[in-house]
What does this fold into?
Amino acid sequence: MSGVNDFAFKMATVNGTGSASANGLLMQAIFRMGIPVSGKNIFPSNIQGLPTWYEIRVNRDGYMARPEQIDLVVALNTGTYERDVAAVRAGGYLVYDSSWPLDRSLIRDDVQYLGVPFGQLCVENFEGDRPRTLLRNIVYTGTLAALFDIDMDVVGEMLREKFSKKKALLDANFRAIQLGHDYAMKHFDCPLPIRLERMDATRDSIVIDGNTAAALGCVFAGATVGAWYPITPSTSLMEAYRTFGERYRRDPDSGQRRYAMIQAEDELAAAGMVIGAGWAGARAFTSTAGPGISLMEEFIGLAYYGEVPCVFFDVQRTGPSTGMPTRTQQGDLMAIAYASHGDTKHIALYPCSPAECFTMARDAFDLAERYQTPVFVVSDLDIGMNDWMVPRFSWDDAYVPDRGKVLSAADLENVKKFARYTDVDGDGIPYRTLPGVGPKGAYFTRGSGHDKNAAYTEDSDAYLELVDRIARKIQGAASAVPAPEVFRQEGASVGLVALGGTHGALREALDLLRAQGIGADYMRIRGFPFAAEVADFLNEHEFVFVVEQNRDAQLRAMLAIETGVPRDHMIPVLDYGGLPLTAGRVVGAVTAHLEGAAV
Amino acid sequence: MTSIVKPPVKHPSLPRNALGLTRRDYEGAMSTLCAGCGHDSITAAIVQAFWELDVPPHRAAKMSGIGCSSKTTAYFMKQSHGFNGVHGRMPALTTGANAANRDLVYIGISGDGDSLSIGLGQFVHAIRRNVNMLYVLENNGVYGLTKGQFSASADIGSTSKKGDENEFPPIDPVLLALSLGATFVARGFSGDKAQLVPMLKAGLLHNGFGFIDIISPCVSFNDHVGSTKSYRYTREHYQELAPVDFVPLRKEITAPAEAGAGDAMSVAMHDGSVVRFRKTPEDYNPRDRDVAYRHLRDHQRRGEIPTGLIYINERSQDLHTLNKTVARPLVELPYEELCPGNAALQELMEEYR
Ligand SMILES: Cc1ncc(C[n+]2csc(CCOP(=O)(O)OP(=O)(O)O)c2C)c(N)n1
Ligand code: SF4
Ligand SMILES: [Mg+2]
It folds into this structure.
């Protein structure tokens, strides 16, 4: 139950009013107090004026999934008052702006109402509409600091860092924080039973979003060409690549760039640019979301069949079509695994957190070049855009990029005749050359039928030899993609299977189930094609629950296709409304099924 | 059908360029296009231009989309890497390849279907970005490979082989390129190699997007009476507006300026080579976009097809100049120059606490 260092609260505001930075400030302050914390931004596809929520969960045990219940709501959007009041758990708190009276219909007798005249305080203390609107967020931050016992020194330090160069703003923010804090201290019984106490559990962690982490991974992996077309929720990945590029990839003497980033005219072009750059020998990538993947499909097939390395980040959002662009989902799993017409199958990596976005960006480039094929990092909005507390990143300076089988001019000297698409080593992976290397290395890349010499063909046998080799090559990657992570418990009776950002909810669900006497094993799949262990895990259990965030049980279908395990061996647990998964959802589905099965 | 390889025949008597290579060294696989197809003549002109420019074949990259025209990259320079991509998307592939390796000579071959319908967006944006490449549009007014449908460059009133009349106004790629700010705009005719070769050479050396629209009759589907992209129609309405000579950097400029109205205007390319205009009308200035536009429209109104190097901006800045990319190709930068290393990462991590 909720209590010290174990509670959740949320801010209900209107987007475009500056609440995002105040909410970030709150989360970071808690983090700096050494307490595990997570934040989820539930925002509209809109620039200004629509409702937005920010949920913060504090948990001393490190459970970071979306919280099951909300202990306190800061309701600052009159437009959503009703649902925000309803969102408070019984016995919880509602902080509202008491500059105006609250409608009687909004009064619940199982909720404590904490009215603070935020608007009035701002009008009395600050000049101008915009500053008043913005500083209202800082005032409620001060109020929450008092209610939760957030260390005011920490908050002060953060404000000083943020506004170190803007004295006037710094003063105004300090004043606002103090106003909210003092009001709460004077009028309420501070701190509340849900409050914070310093811990030492975040020393080795950072707070970062997955898109930033992925971009950082690209820079460290040596990616030099990025092409993209803006789309939520992937845009911030390329923006971060730009930021890091400017910081780390400017020639110290000339100021010239050691990277090229091109904002393409659409996703088709972005895919083409990345494939062109990969063909020429660069580590190249694009980032997009479902609608972009749909547009890229023809090019993806070209890269697959022409065997060109390239990396795609798909930050999934809720589909189909434009769907809900600011809500999360795992709806592109199948679209990516078998993207493009004809027989295709692609290497995909499934990060579960920003930490894995960082490492899997590197893995993606290695795999793309080793297997000469498109590689997809399948992230989602929750991972990509929300701030996650993850272990601090490190980089192995001994890392050497795997550039795959590329023949240099010197290598070509020793080759009798270069034949681009022959299986020299028996692993299905041919040797390639980069344009410019020398006359002997020249070959013709095409999406039309070609034989092992890269010459045009319409001959069945030559065609079959090539596509069958590619199939073997891609299947060979099953043992090279990150292996599944398997958690076993003694006496486990059931198995759970999932991938990606639902990991936190699953770990928590395992503990909750165990508390109910249900032992469960859990496998988190990290790559496609599936490693052999994946089928083993499925077969080891009488049946498994496949937990995923889409309507049609795509992961389950892929497991059935790829492993031959019958579908009815895999019970789907589906959560696809667009919000991050909660542990309770998993526990509920599992127990309901087991009870049903027991009857 | 598999691709046809030409037998390697040594001809000791063939003339050699500065690299000691003969024209044969710039040829490719045997063409599988229809006999008499304009595209094959363009291929021959391309071979000649690269040979005369002494470009080492392996330092060139041949890019194309899909169509009879796009197939031709297989028919020249077998010692160059080639990339025959997807329909209408050659510009993106070339942009990416060029971003990665700026040191190669990029030639992109496309058709009027490839460039003006499915690939119009990519064509337009490659111009905007001024990607350093030569873009050859082999323009026959039809979709050759899919057997004779009208393309977006077919003129109003021109008829198809089956007798249908085209009712939609054509897109003129030259006017389009000019209006988009292209830095090198030319038009040629597949049947006039003497004019094509110097233009191709100038386009290859241009620092930025060199665009050549080449009328290239399709003998199978669009060479009949009633087609404005037929050999006959083109020959009759052909106007050399701005014919050029091309004098590469290395060769001494000895030829004296020809006499006559407005001739001998010289434009220096970024590498010091010179493009020299012959016989341009007195008031024609190929550096002035407005003048070029006016001339084109005037000729067009008279039903003429103005050819030659129509516009050039010799101070053109390509994508890399605009991006301020390092001079060395990105593909040649050693990994150590790309990875900030763990020490930098640890410093950065402090900002995420
Ligand atoms: C996505 C896609 N749509 C349609 C086609 C079929 N197609 C192949 S070539 C072509 C038209 C080519 O016309 P053009 O570019 O003018 O070349 P030409 O054959 O006339 O030289 C079409 C429509 C294709 N290859 N890909
Ligand atoms: S169909 Fe037309 S364009 Fe195609 S090869 Fe034949 S003549 Fe040339
Ligand atoms: Mg055509």
Observations:
- Chain A touches chain B through 79 residues (CB under 8 Å).
- Chain A has a mean pLDDT of 97.
- Chain A has four domains: 6-187, 208-391, 409-479, 485-598.
- Residues 167-187 of chain A form the longest helix (21 residues).
